[in-house]
Amino acid sequence: MITQLQQTSQEDYVEIFFILKDIKLLMLTSERIRIFRILRTTWKVDVFIILTCVATYYTHEYLIAKAIAIPTMIPTLLGTALAFFVGFNNNQAYNRWWEARTIWGGLVNDSRSWARSVLEYTTDNGHPQVEIQQIKERMIKQMIGFVYALRDALRKNDDGYYSKFLSEKEITAVKQQTNIPNAILSLNAKNIHRLSELGSINEFRFVQLNELLRSFTDNMGKSERINNTVFPTSYIYFTRMFIWALVIFVTLVLADSIGVWSIVLGWVVGFVYHTSHLNGMGLMTRSKKLLPAFL
């Protein structure tokens, strides 16, 4: 029986790694990004940009050209200002994504340390070995349940999968709490206290295990903050508005020199700026979804 419990604990220990590893980062893990994949994402906006350029060109030909000449400085200054906006958005979005990536790495490392410490740093100290093994198995399973519960909390989708790793009594206890992942960590805190009472761990190892629980709590709070904090909508709104203004002015200015080809070049400028902006917003979105995706 003891051998079976040890084997189960080792299997649960391995399962923690697969829970936290079995995912890909969409386009971020691809070494090559094909233009077709980008166009498949942006084609709706591309159609609107082309239609806008067409409408702007014919408006210029039949209305504006005979009345006023658009200074070339306008799209130049607007493009420069827009480059700062897009650059700021992408920089902030990448910082958010990297922070989420760092939090995920912390959860992976702490999970490994937790399972290893529970399995290797506890002794029976004269007490029935079966009881100690049951506590160790329960501690690892509860941590797996914590991972799934945190995933559900971040996704705001309670499928109850975490309950597979908890007993009926434990499920009843955690469901009485508002924050289920934190309630599961509290269960493990009681397990640590029980091991200390049995003399299975000394004071130093007690502090180490409690420090790991604190680290889990910190990473949980950080992931909740990223998941619940929206990117400032004013930056998104003004950036998109300036992109459309730039497309219009570029088409108007180029219509005098290259005629109908201004529609094509207007679309190219809009495509470049829009894709760059979309890349930053995609990073921001993945920074919010990175942890629930990995978990």
Structure, explained:
The protein is an all-alpha fold. The protein has one domain. It has nine helices and no strands. The protein has helices at 2-21, 35-64, 73-120, 129-155, 168-175, 180-197, 203-228, 233-258, 261-294. Helix 1 (2-21) runs antiparallel to helix 3. It is rod-shaped and about 100 Å long. The chain starts with a helix and ends with a helix.
How does the SSE layout of this entry go?
Blueprint: H1 2-21, H2 35-64, H3 73-120, H4 129-155, H5 168-175, H6 180-197, H7 203-228, H8 233-258, H9 261-294
Structural class: mainly alpha
Residue runs with pLDDT of under 50 for 5 or more positions: 1-29, 287-295
Query: What composes the largest sheet?
Result: none
Strand segment count: 0
End-to-end Cα distance: 31 Å
Question: Given the structure, what is the number of helices?
Answer: 9
- SSE run: HHHHHHHHH
User: Taking Cα atoms only, what radius of gyration do you get, to the nearest Å?
Assistant: 28 Å
Molecular shape: rod-shaped
